[in-house]
Amino acid sequence: MASVNEKENNKEEYSFIYGDEAVSYSVIRKNVIRKIVTQKNNSENAKRKISIKVHPSCEVVISAPDDAERSDIHDAVMKRASWIYDALKEFRTHLEYVETKQYVSGEMQFYLGRRYVLKVVEDNSALPSVKMSRGKLLVTLTRFNDDKQALTKALVSGWYGVKAERIFHERLAELLPQATWVDGIPSFRVMPMQKQWGSCSAKGNLMLNPHLIKAPKECIDYVILHELSHIAEHNHSERFWRLLTSVMPNWKEVKSKLDGMAELYLNE
Predict the structure, then answer these.
(1) 114 and 227 co-located in one domain
(2) Greatest distance between any 2 Cα atoms in the chain
């Protein structure tokens, strides 16, 4: 079992062998408040406080107390080696699909968390349109020309925008009664954003990213409730997280799901 140790400030770099692959991971040490305990109990506490995260970027990060033994960290990693490898495999699969869209038949599109195969057809007797049909996102053009890709992209983007306006309005209306701290009905508009799913202005006006319509409804609900919580707390204070948790107890799980698919949903 090979291991590479490379320290840099508070960050350590290691690797372990799984099958025929060397998997690299980082260890970040955290300062902890120490109490007077026996050596055995201290070791057990350190083990319990070791956490493992696999990020969509395929970075494996281990958080551990600054007094955790290297052997304890290694044991924790090896116990979850299979899970780490499977998570990396899934994220790598996602990254393989993150290529610039060509808007041609056969490409994958998303809507409310489901995958649809794009099909572009020509029909001189029909109006340009986009509709879902039997697992496909069917785009009809009146004629094929040099601007086929641009026309298809414009039609698909417009279709997403219309769907986003309608679904976001429906979800906001349904979720608003839960946000008892909000007075009246906040206004919202759909606006493309590169790095945000939504935002809330100082006046309580919401902006939502149309790409969010590609995600499951629970992810849409999370973003809306997140922004509604900002009406009461404009920063991420403890009260903010308490408000969000009160209306969506599983928000961490939902956020993780959305983050894991972000590159695919935002890709256009």
Answers:
(1) yes
(2) 82
